[in-house]
């Protein structure tokens, strides 16, 4: 894994669209998220969470999806590419779903994203392509639900992120905790 992980694509949308157009570069802002993205902010920006309590902290400033999921979905007949599932950063060579809470991803020269949890897949996936919600859910060997639609994080250190940038993982000290939906 060391040295193999890289950014494949970066994406943002200034409005609450499901998919996000790919960019040549995105700028991460510490404590806020992706500059110009509709989900940027200190407090929650996802519409369902704003409706419940707009004062909650935004633990979903940056959405990351592994390109290997796109490969899996394409082999199952779905037409998906980077940014289509609303992610800001598409990665390759990194087991995103296996990271613990608090792991830090160093993206490019200066940006650092701390992982807060899993994206909880929603019905909007089926609005994008019928059957996609079921395709991003699976079961582990014990029958537990596996959410494969990416992970969420907060920006600790700002900076520019581009396709081709390396990703370095920094694991948290102490006991490691599995990702749960945020």
UniProtKB/TrEMBL annotation:
<protein>
    <submittedName>
        <fullName>MOSC domain-containing protein</fullName>
    </submittedName>
</protein>
<dbReference type="InterPro" id="IPR011037">
    <property type="entry name" value="Pyrv_Knase-like_insert_dom_sf"/>
</dbReference>
<dbReference type="GO" id="GO:0030170">
    <property type="term" value="F:pyridoxal phosphate binding"/>
</dbReference>
<feature type="domain" description="MOSC">
    <location>
        <begin position="20"/>
        <end position="170"/>
    </location>
</feature>
<dbReference type="GO" id="GO:0003824">
    <property type="term" value="F:catalytic activity"/>
</dbReference>
<dbReference type="Pfam" id="PF03473">
    <property type="entry name" value="MOSC"/>
</dbReference>
<dbReference type="InterPro" id="IPR005302">
    <property type="entry name" value="MoCF_Sase_C"/>
</dbReference>
<dbReference type="InterPro" id="IPR052716">
    <property type="entry name" value="MOSC_domain"/>
</dbReference>
<dbReference type="GO" id="GO:0030151">
    <property type="term" value="F:molybdenum ion binding"/>
</dbReference>
